[in-house]
């Protein structure tokens, strides 16, 4: 961060202005004022955080910024400064250990980063300098350098493409490492630049670096001798980003515009904001309680000490006189140091090791997700990916699931189903059974009712073939320049007739393939001319004049082509809502029916329109487009304005229906999630009808679900304004779903009884109306009404959502009452915002690139894996970590309580009960491993049962194991046991002659007996809680007990030369030689565990009972799923029957 | 017994097996081991009533047995306690409590009606005496006490203010614990027909074996003289004689190895404590103290009244469980009967639930 800021500064004043001027090749240009070599960052990428020099101070500083570490540091310092009962080693050693381990880990990681940085920075690149090619280290590239890049190399900085070895002035690039899109993108050289780069004198004016990968505006001034400087616009298509790889092109030359930390890649390399889990919040709350306990203990002891000392003869008995210095000290200062001493004595109640253990548990535990072979998908040869291990337990607490539709619920594997040309429906069948004279080379067009005219058919199919941005994958060395087949990831070579296509959106491929089935084959785009093979196997050629790119606001795209005969045609395809207003109304009526029917059947529909442009029209459009593309400011807006202007007055020729297949087990997964008490919201940018049918197919909406619609359509009302209607509807739905409905039991969303289910549908426009009403005052009221309705619905569908709106919804739910835990799952770049917003973000390794995966917390190959991730892994992790946390607090409470009680028996003199070694080792060695093993391996319920019975997930809903009740239970247990340990031994010591030789035991024997009972009790308590004993549990539990005994013998068996006091010498061995000590240890352990055992037993009648019942209970769900999986996904009939669509 | 069910790792279907073979080469594929799949065979104990009830019964009965044994043993142990602080005016040691009386002896008499079975252990007890003060507890120099004469000259800081006398001579052994060593001495006589017969008191074996043999060491004699090893040092202020004069009769019981010293140096856990003073194991009294009258001569030196303390002597014999301690026996009896009662209650509860279970099924 700091580095980056510094780098920003090093750009100097240049950075302050809105644009920067770059001199290509550092050649001064005429007609500009004096050539000032501008200062920009060098091309060094610094992703490392530390250098050798600042590692120690910086790392320490960062570590001690953590509140826990800081607390322990303070305790340590107090121990060093003030005369305290325990040596600084007892708290210094664990702290040192923790800090060192963390520092080593971070240092190692930083070392790797340095290495990676160096690899990039020292990479040799060729730079054109004064007519020569010079090899330079990448980090020495300056802005303005002309850089040469050869095929398969990555670009060393952001370059403006000046010259390409391809004839048409293009080059191909993959940006797989930037945004994960593996398709080839075409970039263009700046128009009309000199072929001779040495002679090129030009300046580039462009905006200051900004992180958006897809935005770039700039202008190039080309100076030629005795000519007006030519101006060329620069856009993202001219910019080659650092990190992208050159493909299919021998070499290119480009001029560096952004270097080093100012490249778009570096600007995007920002760590995600840290998400914190709810468990951590609970820990902090508990910590606060324990801090209060700690402070009150210290206060009580300090007070008692001075009360006790005020009695005559107690303060300074003759046998324990104070030094002169002590006598002279100010009383209040003494009180304060006493207070600090008590704090130090009791500080073990908040253990350093808990943080270490929690971290380790999370880190190690997350491996089980990556290792899980159920998450392995053989198609993409990948398993699950864990990007952050901090949220494992959050997976067990999810209340709201926000899912994307396309690619998540559905496969994003498009298949052309049918089309409708001029109002006639054409359905494609694979079989040739129903041939009715329309047979073509490799497809059958089955006209259901009547044929449209031949001409219209062909126009429609040509439109499908032309209106797209699909590239043909070159299977062999078709092009002269391509000398190798570059790996187009994921798409395996297909049959010759099944040509490989590469496109940014899968429906485009589906459409092109669909057209192929009807006889029109797209052969490819070569130097601006598109080739089509028509039904008669003739090659038609079209000159591609303009591509009016797709964008989510317009929801359509167009191409302008010129036929051989010189006609200029515009083909446009897009969503019905965006096409219908732009075509003649009478054409719409014929097609609308088909479109709507297709939409309710769950297909994605696109309408195709065309328009013939006259020469004047084209000239106008061409000029408009060129002007807009040259604009430096507001280029987007200007372009859209031109687009909108051009795309009018078209005539509708047909519509297509593409099926987006449901993901494997999508319905079962959704059902399981709902069964687990989660509320599923579908957030999609898709049309309402399509989304709704997907919801039905996924069984989010059931047959009996009453749909509450809040869309633009329902808002249309003659009498009322939209705003008023919205309010009215909200009121009405609220009455229906919230007030009239019987109170829903917490956590139970889908009741199997006769309760009416509600489904809620809202679209983007209405949502924005709801979120930003004209009257500010209404906003909160609307929102709360909306939220209340949604909370009472089994499923909510939000359609036509912009990416930001998705995040907005997630945020709204996240911040609603009770701050429920939200989970977002999506696969595309448009889901990133909601993935980042939700508590847990899950990316699907789908086909829409890797952006979602990179921004997610967890990534899984398929939607169906979500079930196991939540129901099994999430549940187990939650139970494990909750138990871990509670157990840690408990074991330290009963560890320190006897020490506290002992103060009443030693004149509150801060005498520790346990030896320093025991104080230090208790949390590090004696009791840490069993709980760590437990928290990694425990399966209180088998994974299979968890998966079969989703309702089990509800048992841990709402942070059930970390609420105040269980916390109180554990605390009471800790207090009970602490009291028992101390007073049990206290009564035994009423006669300290415990050996059969009449000798007496001293204070260290006392402490050791208490400590032995303590270690055994807390370990056995854990053993009682363990429901899943693997050999590791056995090894660790019995092993750590054995280690305790061994250590005690060892520690007490040797005169340690480095110890000033041999306090424990033979204390443990002597203790074991006393029968009474044995007996008291045994009875105290048993007595401490007795309530626990009793509780287990008393709970037992329910235990096996419910466990036996579980299968039968799950039959409710099981029957349904078996029944439903038996029938094919009859979503057509299903949705038709249950929900007649308007 | 516990219903334990062992699970075999994984139940992969046939198709999965085949698929796995095909893709074993795939590097990304996770290891299919029981551990990584969280399918380690595990013992899943179920604490069912079938094991809990008999378990409780057995434990309860065992505890009852131990409890009875403990209780009976504790009852057989004879204890005789006598406070000799001299707070009450009529007590024999009252006159010794006045500070003016420097060397004072007093005589406490008692009579035994039955034989006090031997070996009899003779303890002294102090109350309201905080040997477990933190500052007090650390106020000693273990290096000195291991006979390292280097540390005689410069005692550790923790010994202050018991490190040097007023003339700045180093005190050996330094520190509060050593300085406050209990220095009352006792002589026990049996009164037979008016004549006093001395009961021999055995001062050996009263301290921990390891303390005497390993942990504490005397300095090596200098020029054959043990005392000169202490040259340049002074005795602790409260001591009547120096460390090397603690027992001039027995060199093995002298200096830091004096067993009374060792006993004192092992700090008591609680402010009310007793420490072993002598054992009565010799001569006519090896089998115990016969019935009769006895007289205990107390050389009263140790002041406790300033801090409201009490001093007492305790005669006791010991058993396998140590000294008399009713607590342990009672605790075992209570817990044992609790377990038995619980098992009976649970049996009733369980029977009821079991029937209802059957109804359900």
Automatic annotation (TrEMBL), chain A:
Molecular functions per Gene Ontology: ATP binding; ATP hydrolysis activity; ATPase-coupled intramembrane lipid transporter activity; magnesium ion binding
Entry's transmembrane regions: 64-82, 285-308, 339-358, 967-989, 1004-1023, 1035-1056
GO biological process, one term: phospholipid translocation
GO cellular component: early endosome; endoplasmic reticulum membrane; plasma membrane; recycling endosome
Keyword ATP-binding carried by entry: yes
This enzyme's EC code(s): 7.6.2.1
Membrane topology of the entry: Multi-pass membrane protein
Domain (P-type ATPase C-terminal): residue spans on this chain: 853-1100
Keywords: ATP-binding, Cell membrane, Endoplasmic reticulum, Endosome, Lipid transport, Magnesium, Membrane, Metal-binding, Nucleotide-binding, Phosphoprotein, Translocase, Transmembrane, Transmembrane helix, Transport
PROSITE patterns: ATPASE_E1_E2
Boundaries of every P-type ATPase N-terminal domain copy: 38-91
Active-site positions on this chain: 404 (4-aspartylphosphate intermediate)
Localization of this protein: Cell membrane; Early endosome; Endoplasmic reticulum membrane; Membrane
Annotated stretches, region: Disordered: 1103-1142
Protein family membership: Belongs to the cation transport ATPase (P-type) (TC 3.A.3) family. Type IV subfamily.
Protein name: Phospholipid-transporting ATPase
UniProt organism field: Carassius auratus
UniProtKB/TrEMBL annotation, chain B:
Pfam family, one: CDC50
Transmembrane segments: 46-72, 108-126, 330-351
Record field: compositional bias (Basic and acidic residues): 14-31
Region Disordered, residue ranges: 1-33
A single GO cellular-component term on record: endoplasmic reticulum
Chief localisation class: membrane
GO biological process: one example: phospholipid translocation
Superkingdom of the source species: Eukaryota
Metal-binding found in the keyword field: no
Protein family membership: Belongs to the CDC50/LEM3 family.
Cross-referenced PANTHER family: CELL CYCLE CONTROL PROTEIN 50 (PTHR10926), CELL CYCLE CONTROL PROTEIN 50B (PTHR10926:SF19)
Protein name, entry field: Cell cycle control protein
Taxonomic lineage from the root: Eukaryota, Metazoa, Chordata, Craniata, Vertebrata
């Amino acid at each position: 961060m700091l580095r980056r800021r510094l780098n920003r500064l090093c750009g100097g004043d240049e950075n302050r202005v809105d644009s920067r001027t770059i001199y290509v090749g550092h050649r001064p240009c005429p007609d500009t004022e004096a050539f000032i070599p501008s200062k920009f960052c060098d091309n060094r990428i610094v992703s490392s955080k530390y250098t050798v020099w600042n590692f120690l101070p910086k790392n320490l500083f960062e570590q001690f910024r953590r509140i826990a570490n800081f607390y322990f540091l303070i305790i340590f310092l107090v121990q060093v400064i003030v005369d305290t009962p325990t040596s600084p080693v007892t708290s210094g050693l664990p702290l040192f250990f923790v800090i060192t381990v963390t520092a080593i880990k971070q240092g190692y990681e930083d070392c790797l980063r340095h290495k990676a940085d160096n690899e990039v920075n020292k990479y040799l690149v060729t730079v054109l300098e004064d007519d020569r090619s010079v090899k330079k280290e990448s980090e020495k590239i300056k802005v303005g350098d002309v850089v040469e890049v050869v095929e398969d190399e990555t670009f060393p900085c952001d370059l403006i493409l000046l010259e390409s070895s391809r004839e048409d002035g293009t080059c191909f690039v993959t940006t797989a490492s930037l945004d994960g899109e593996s398709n080839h993108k075409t970039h263009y050289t700046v128009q009309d630049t000199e072929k001779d780069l040495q002679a090129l004198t030009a300046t580039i004016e462009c905006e200051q670096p900004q992180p958006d990968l897809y935005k770039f505006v700039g202008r190039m001034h080309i100076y030629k001798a005795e000519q007006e400087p030519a101006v060329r616009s620069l856009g993202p298509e001219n910019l080659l980003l650092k990190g992208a790889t050159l493909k299919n092109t021998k070499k290119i030359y480009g001029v560096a515009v952004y270097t080093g930390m100012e490249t778009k890649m570096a600007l995007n390399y920002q760590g995600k904001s840290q998400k914190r889990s709810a468990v951590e919040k609970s820990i902090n709350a508990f910590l606060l309680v324990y801090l209060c306990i700690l402070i009150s203990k210290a206060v009580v002891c300090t007070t008692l000490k001075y009360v006790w000392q005020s009695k005559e003869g107690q303060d300074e008995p003759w046998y324990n006189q104070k030094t002169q210095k002590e006598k002279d000290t100010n009383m209040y200062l003494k009180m304060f140091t006493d207070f600090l001493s008590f704090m130090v004595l009791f500080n073990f109640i908040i253990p350093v090791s808990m943080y270490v253990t929690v971290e380790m548990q999370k880190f190690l535990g997350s491996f089980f997700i990556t290792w899980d072979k159920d998450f392995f998908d053989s198609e993409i040869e990948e398993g699950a990916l864990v990007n952050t291990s901090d949220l494992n337990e959050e997976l067990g607490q999810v209340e709201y699931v926000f899912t994307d539709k396309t690619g998540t619920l559905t496969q994003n594997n498009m298949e052309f189903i049918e089309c409708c040309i001029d109002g006639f429906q054409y359905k494609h069948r694979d079989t040739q059974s129903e041939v009715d004279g329309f047979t073509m080379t490799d497809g059958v067009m089955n006209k259901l009712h009547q044929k449209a005219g031949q001409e219209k058919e062909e126009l429609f199919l040509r439109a499908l073939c032309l209106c797209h941005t699909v590239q043909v994958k070159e299977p062999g060395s078709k092009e002269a320049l391509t000398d190798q087949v570059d790996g187009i990831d994921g798409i395996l070579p297909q049959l010759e007739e099944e040509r490989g296509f590469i496109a940014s959106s899968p429906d485009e491929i589906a459409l092109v393939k669909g057209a192929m089935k009807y006889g029109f084959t797209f052969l490819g785009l070569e130097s601006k001319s598109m080739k089509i093979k028509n039904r008669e196997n003739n090659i038609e050629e079209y000159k591609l004049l303009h591509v009016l790119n797709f964008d989510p606001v317009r929801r359509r795209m167009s191409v302008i082509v010129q036929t051989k005969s010189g006609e200029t045609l515009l083909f446009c395809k897009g969503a019905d809502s965006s096409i219908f207003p732009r075509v003649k109304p009478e054409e719409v009526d014929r097609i609308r029916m088909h479109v709507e029917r297709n939409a309710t059947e769950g297909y994605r529909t696109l309408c195709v329109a065309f328009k013939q442009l006259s020469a004047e029209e084209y000239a106008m459009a061409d000029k408009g487009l060129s002007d807009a593309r040259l604009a430096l400011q507001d280029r987007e807006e200007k372009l859209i304005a031109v687009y909108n202007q051009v795309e009018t007055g078209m005539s509708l020729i047909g519509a297509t229906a593409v099926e987006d297949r449901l993901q494997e087990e999508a319905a079962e997964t959704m059902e399981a999630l709902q069964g687990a008490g989660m509320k599923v919201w579908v957030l999609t940018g898709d049309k309402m009808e399509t989304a709704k049918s997907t919801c039905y197919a996924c069984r989010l909406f059931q047959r009996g679900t009453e749909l509450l619609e809040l869309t633009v359509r329902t808002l249309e009302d003659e009498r009322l304004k939209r705003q008023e209607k919205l309010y009215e509807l909200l009121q009405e739905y609220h009455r229906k779903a919230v007030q009239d409905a019987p109170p829903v039991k917490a956590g139970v969303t889908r009741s199997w009884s006769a309760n009416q289910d509600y489904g809620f549908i809202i679209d983007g426009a209405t949502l924005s109306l709801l979120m930003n009403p004209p009257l500010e005052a209404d906003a909160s009221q609307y929102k709360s009404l909306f939220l209340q309705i949604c909370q009472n619905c089994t499923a909510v569908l939000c359609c036509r959502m912009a990416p930001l709106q998705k995040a907005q919804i997630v945020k709204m739910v996240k911040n609603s009452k009770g701050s429920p835990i939200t989970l977002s799952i999506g696969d595309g770049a448009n889901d990133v915002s909601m993935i980042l917003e939700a508590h847990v973000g899950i990316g699907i390794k789908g086909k829409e690139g890797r952006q979602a995966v990179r921004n997610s917390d967890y990534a899984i190959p398929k939607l169906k894996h979500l079930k196991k991730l939540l129901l099994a892994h999430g549940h187990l992790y939650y139970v494990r970590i909750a138990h871990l946390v509670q157990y840690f607090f408990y074991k330290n409470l009963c560890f320190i309580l006897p020490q506290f009680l002992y103060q009443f028996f030693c004149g509150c003199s801060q005498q520790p009960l346990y030896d320093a070694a025991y104080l230090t080792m208790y949390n590090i060695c004696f009791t840490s491993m069993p709980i760590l093993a437990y928290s990694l391996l425990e399966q209180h319920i088998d994974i299979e049962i968890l998966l079969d019975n989703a309702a089990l997930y509800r048992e841990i809903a709402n942070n059930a194991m970390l609420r105040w009740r269980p916390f109180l239970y554990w605390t009471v247990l800790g207090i009970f046991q602490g009291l028992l340990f101390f007073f049990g031994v206290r009564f035994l010591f009423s006669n300290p002659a415990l050996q059969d030789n009449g000798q007496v035991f001293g204070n260290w024997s006392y402490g050791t007996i208490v400590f032995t009972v303590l270690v055994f009790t807390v370990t056995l308590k854990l053993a009682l809680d363990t429901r899943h004993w693997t050999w590791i549990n056995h090894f660790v539990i019995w092993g750590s007990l054995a280690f305790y005994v061994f250590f005690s013998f060892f520690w007490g068996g040797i005169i340690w030369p480095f110890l000033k006091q041999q306090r424990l010498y033979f204390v443990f061995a002597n203790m074991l030689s006393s029968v009474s000590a044995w007996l008291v240890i045994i009875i105290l352990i048993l007595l401490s565990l007795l309530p626990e055992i009793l509780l287990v037993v008393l709970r037992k009648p329910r235990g096996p009972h419910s466990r036996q019942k579980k299968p039968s209970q799950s039959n409710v769900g099981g029957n349904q799923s078996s029944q439903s999986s038996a029938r094919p996904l009859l979503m057509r009939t299903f949705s038709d029957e249950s929900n007649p669509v308007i | 017994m516990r219903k334990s069910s062992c699970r075999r790792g994984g139940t992969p279907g046939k198709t999965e097996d085949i698929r796995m073979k095909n893709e074993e080469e795939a590097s990304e594929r996770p290891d299919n081991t029981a551990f990584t799949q969280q399918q380690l065979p595990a013992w899943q104990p179920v604490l069912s009533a079938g094991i809990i009830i008999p378990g409780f019964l057995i434990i309860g009965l065992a505890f009852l047995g131990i409890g009875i044994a403990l209780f009976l043993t504790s009852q057989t142990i004879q204890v005789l306690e006598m406070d000799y602080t001299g707070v009450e005016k009529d007590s024999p040691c009252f006159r010794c409590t006045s500070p003016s009386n420097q060397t004072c002896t007093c005589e406490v008499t008692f009579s035994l009606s039955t034989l006090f079975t031997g070996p009899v252990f003779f303890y002294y007890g102090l109350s309201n005496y905080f040997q477990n003060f933190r500052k007090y507890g650390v106020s000693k120099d273990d290096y000195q006490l291991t006979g390292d004469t280097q540390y005689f000259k410069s005692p550790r800081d923790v010994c202050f203010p018991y490190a040097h006398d007023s003339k700045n001579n180093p005190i050996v052994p330094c520190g509060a614990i050593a300085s406050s060593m209990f220095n009352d001495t006792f002589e026990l006589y049996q009164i037979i027909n008016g004549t006093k017969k001395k009961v021999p008191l055995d001062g050996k074996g009263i301290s921990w074996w390891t303390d005497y043999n390993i942990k504490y060491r005397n300095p090596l004699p200098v020029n054959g003289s043990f005392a000169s090893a202490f040259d340049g040092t002074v005795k602790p202020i409260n001591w009547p004689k120096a460390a090397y004069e603690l027992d001039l009769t027995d060199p093995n019981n002298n200096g830091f190895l004096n067993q009374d010293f060792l006993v004192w140096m092992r700090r008591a856990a609680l402010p009310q404590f007793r420490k072993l003073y002598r054992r009565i194991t010799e001569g006519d009294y090896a089998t115990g103290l016969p019935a009769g009258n006895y007289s205990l001569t107390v050389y009263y030196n140790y002041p406790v009244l300033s801090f409201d303390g009490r001093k007492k002597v305790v005669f006791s014999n010991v058993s396998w469980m140590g000294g008399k301690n009713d607590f342990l026996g009672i605790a075992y009896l209570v817990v044992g009967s609790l377990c038995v009662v619980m098992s009976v209650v649970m049996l009733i509860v369980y029977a009821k639930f079991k029937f209802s279970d059957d109804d359900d099924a």
